[in-house]
Amino acid sequence: MTTNTSFAEQLLIWFDQHGRNHLPWQKNRTGYRVWVSEIMLQQTQVVTVIPYFERFMERFPAAKDLAEADVDEVLSLWTGLGYYRRARNLHDSAIAIAEQHQGNMPKNIDALIALKGIGRSTAGAILSQAYNEPGIILDGNVKRLLTRLHAIEGWPGQSKIDKQLWQIATELTPNQRNADYTQAIMDIGATICKPKQPLCVACPMQARCQALALDRVASIPTPKPKKVLPHKTISVLLLKNQQGQILLEQRPSKGIWGGLWSLPEFVNLKALQTQLALDGLPTNTRPITPIKHVFSHYKLTIEPHLLVLSNMLQKVSENNRSQWYDSQQLHTIGLATPIKKLLEKTQ
């Protein structure tokens, strides 16, 4: 059996010929740039992330710039990437970096993990890619590669298997060229050892792959046990005044679309109409084509109802979380993606 060192050497030989080395976060590498890219890349493909990363860096070139920004602006630049908690965690952690680390990214794994949104694998990626230290990573691509190499059965999210994979990843990580090694092991997982239709014929690890030897590549890793997603339906009010402004409400910081702006939400049309009546407004709203959206843990149908105020005297109940916005302002705030698409269609 080959040694761990030869695995790293073999992987790096492949990387030097086929790896990705022109990604924007690989230029002017800093802990901050690597950190932002790693957070954006969580559950998001590279091709999607690149334009978001470039816009983000243009506006927030350093941690102090991000720390000083309003969270609404941060969320506006994140709109469309999804998993908005990542953006809020970035903002909170930038503030902590400014206050506790003089605006500099920590170079210690414990200090990195202490920041919101940075787990063990992300911390390892920052250490290796920004500082060329032996940071150990275990993202989804690496888990898939390692389970196939060792023909490990069972869902990798299980504690027992996760512990086994961390042990393997630790043993494989070299003590040199760590930035390249980390990129290499992510690249081979993303471009060769793909979830479906992996390019085994082009893989430098063919001779090592136990799943390939056993003709089990298609069934490893074991998929996460499927759950039937519950379905939820809500009604939202698309309320316009005579100036063409739209009433939006900022959602609570915790929960779905936390901190983002959205349309006033109601459990159903009856509840919506009851609130309109309490406000002394017409209840004859016009239904708009429903929107379907799938979250990781449930399916959502949004039923929009349009109401245009007919005169200046008509008012609507407001609170400290609601505000009128015109079409130009919609690009400056964080909007839930389905709501943003709805508003763009109705402008």
- What gap, in angstroms, lies between the N and C termini? 64 Å
Main sheet? 5 strands, mixed
What structural class do helix, strand and pairing data support? Answer: alpha+beta
Q: Tell me, what's the shape?
A: globular
Number of DSSP helical runs? 14
Radius of gyration: 24 Å
Unreliable sequence segments? none
Based on DSSP secondary structure assignment, what is the total number of beta strands? 8
Helix share, percent: 40-55%
By oligomeric state, this entry counts as: single chain
Q: Compute the number of structural domains.
A: 2
- By CATH, the superfamily of the largest domain comes out as Hypothetical protein, domain 2
Strand content: 5-15%
Mean pLDDT, to the nearest integer, reads 90
The CATH class designation of the largest domain is: Mainly Alpha
Q: What's the CATH topology label of the largest domain? A: Endonuclease III, domain 1
Briefly characterize the structure.
This protein has 347 residues and is an alpha+beta fold. Strands 1, 4, 5, 6 and 7 form a five-stranded mixed sheet that branches.
